[in-house]
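re: ur question from yesterday

yeah so i grabbed the chain u mentioned. its 115 aa long if i counted rite. heres the sequnce exactly as i have it in my notes:
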Amino acid sequence: MIEFALVAPLILVIAVGVLQVVLALHVRSTLTAAAAEGARAGALAGSSTLVAERRTREVLSDALGGDAAESVKVQRIRLDGVPVVRVSVSGRLPLIGLLGPSTLTVDGHAMQEIP
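ran it thru and got these structure tokens back, copy pasting raw so excuse formatting
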């Protein structure tokens, strides 16, 4: 009994820490995939930045729920002379404890199609 009382809190802390890391990695990979999908949609010939933002929000709402993204920013930029669509997504991380960052920002890029 005494050993269980001493070891159980330690095991619980480790389990909650592992769960927190798994949740954070899932949210990060989902935000990255949504940003990349939105950038691809916005990079199509004749497409606009509104299409990129709408597609990013659709992917996020399907994967994480309606209010997963705090902000979605779409820009048409040039990287090394190449026209690129950049989608930046900021989302909340689900925190079990009070440790760690509360928001995460990721970028997705796609090369702009030229008609």
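noticed a couple things. The helical segments are 2-43, 49-64. also The chain is about 50% helix and 25% strand.
anyway ttyl
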